[in-house]
Design goal:
ATP hydrolysis activity, alpha/beta, four-stranded antiparallel beta sheet, 2 domains, binds magnesium ion, 10 strands, Rossmann fold, BCA_ABC_TP_C, 342 residues, six-stranded mixed beta sheet, binds adenosine-5'-diphosphate, globular, disordered N terminus, 15 helices, nucleotide-binding
C-alpha cells in the first residue's frame, strides 16, 4: 500500500450498488419512459424564465435581458481543425440553458475553455461582467462558475464525504490525505463537513458518506459530481452530459435536481444528447455544429427548426423523438452496460 490512510479494499473489487432509494418506487422500463414522466417544473423560477425568454428573439447571438456569461469570437483549433468557433453567445442568468449538437460539435471543448481548463487560440468572454479569458480553472470556480467532473480513479478511492471535503478545498495540497483524516478539524473544515452532509442528504447520498465513491452506481456518481460542484456555492453550474450512464430509475430524480438548482437561483448550462431531457427541463436551447452556434431559442421552437433538425439529428431527422436511437451511440452503449450489471 503506498499510503496507510487509503482504504484497505481497492474500490475496483467492490460490487456496483443499485439505486436502492429509487428502485423501491415504480421503476420505469426504459430511459424514454422515465423521461416521459418527467414534468416541467411549474416553480416560480421556471415561470419567470419562460416569461422573460419569451421576449427574446430566437436568433443566433441574440442579446439577453440579464446576461451572466458572454462569449465573443472564441476559437479553439486542434491542428488544422477548428473545434470551437463561437462568434457571440449570451447566457441568461437564472435559467437552464441546454447546449446540444452532434458528437464532435465542440461542446465539451467550449465548456473547457469557458471554465479555464483549456486555452483558446483567440477570443474573450466574461462572467458577471468580469473578463475570465486566461484565468485559471480554480480562479474561475472561485468567481462562481463551476463545471462538474467525472469521478477520476483517484477520487473513486476516497469516500463520498472525502470527495465533498476535497471539492471545498481551495488548494488541496500534498497533505490531502492527512487533512482529510485529521481527527481535530479546524472551524472551516467542520463547517465544510456540515455543509457536505447537508448537500449529500439533498441528493440522498448521506447514507453513503463513508462508502468509496468508486462503489457508487452510475447515477449516484452523477449525483456526487453535482454535489461536489455545489460545495463552492456556485452562481453558475455547467453539466456535461449529466445523464450519461445513468439508469432509467435515476433519470427523473437527476432531472428534478437540475431543475431544483435553477429554482434555487443558480444559472445552469448543460450538455445533453437526450432530446426528451432537453425539452423537459431547459428554458433555452443553444445548438452547436462543427464548432459554431447554429441556432438558439426556446426548446419547442428550436427543435422544430429545420436547420436544427439537419444539424443535430442528421440522418435520423425523420425518426420519432421518442426513439432510443436518438441517443448518442456512446451514451446508449453505456446505458446498456449499466443495464447488464443490474
Ligand atoms: N485535445 C484534443 N486534441 C485534438 N482534438 C481534440 C481535442 N479535444 C477535442 N478534439 C476534437 O475537437 C472536436 C470537438 O470535440 P468535443 O468538444 O469533445 O465535442 P463534443 O463535446 O461536442 O462531442 C472533435 O473533433 C474532437 O475530436
Ligand atoms: Mg462532449
Amino acid at each position: 500500500m503506498p499510503d496507510e490512510t487509503l482504504p484497505e479494499t481497492p474500490p475496483e473489487t467492490l460490487p456496483e450498488t443499485t439505486e436502492n432509494d429509487v428502485t423501491e418506487v415504480t421503476e420505469p422500463e426504459s430511459t424514454v419512459e422515465a423521461l416521459e414522466s418527467v414534468e416541467r417544473s411549474d416553480s416560480a423560477a421556471a415561470k419567470a424564465a419562460e416569461h422573460v425568454l419569451a421576449t427574446v428573439e430566437p436568433t443566433v447571438g441574440v442579446s439577453k435581458p440579464d446576461t451572466i456569461l458572454v462569449a465573443d469570437g472564441v476559437q479553439r483549433r486542434f491542428g488544422g481543425m477548428t473545434a470551437v468557433d463561437v462568434d457571440h453567445l449570451e447566457v441568461q442568468r437564472g435559467v437552464i440553458t441546454a447546449l446540444i449538437g452532434p458528437n464532435g460539435a465542440g461542446k465539451t471543448t467550449f465548456f473547457n475553455l469557458l471554465t479555464g481548463f483549456d486555452k483558446p487560440n483567440q477570443g474573450s468572454w466574461s462572467f458577471e461582467g468580469k473578463s475570465l479569458a486566461g484565468i485559471s480553472a480554480a480562479k474561475v470556480a472561485r468567481n462562481g462558475m463551476v463545471r462538474t467532473f467525472q469521478l477520476t480513479k483517484a477520487l473513486s478511492r476516497l469516500t463520498v464525504l472525502q470527495n465533498m471535503q476535497l471539492a471545498a478545498m481551495d488548494n488541496p495540497g500534498e497533505n490531502l490525505f492527512a487533512s482529510l483524516v485529521k481527527p481535530l478539524w479546524s472551524g472551516t473544515e467542520k463547517r465544510n463537513a456540515e455543509k457536505a452532509l447537508e448537500i449529500l442528504s439533498r441528493f440522498k447520498l448521506d447514507a453513503k458518506k463513508d462508502d468509496f465513491a468508486g462503489s457508487l452506481s452510475g447515477g449516484q456518481r452523477k449525483l456526487l459530481e453535482m454535489a461536489r460542484a455545489l460545495m463552492t456555492d456556485p452562481t453558475m453550474i455547467m453539466l456535461d452530459e449529466p445523464m450519461a450512464g445513468v439508469n432509467p430509475a435515476l433519470v427523473q430524480s437527476l432531472l428534478g435536481h437540475i431543475q431544483a438548482l435553477r429554482d434555487d437561483g443558480m444559472t445552469v448550462l448543460f450538455v445533453e444528447h437526450d432530446m426528451h431531457a432537453v425539452r423537459h427541463i431547459s428554458d433555452w436551447v443553444v445548438v452547436m455544429a462543427e464548432g459554431r452556434i447554429v441556432a438558439e431559442g426556446p426548446p419547442a421552437a428550436v427543435m422544430q427548426d429545420q436547420a436544427v433538425v439537419d444539424a443535430y439529428l442528421g440522418a435520423h431527422h425523420d425518426t420519432d423523438l421518442g426513439d432510443d436511437s436518438l441517443l448518442d451511440p456512446a451514451v446508449l452503449a453505456r446505458l446498456e452496460a449499466e443495464e447488464e450489471k443490474r
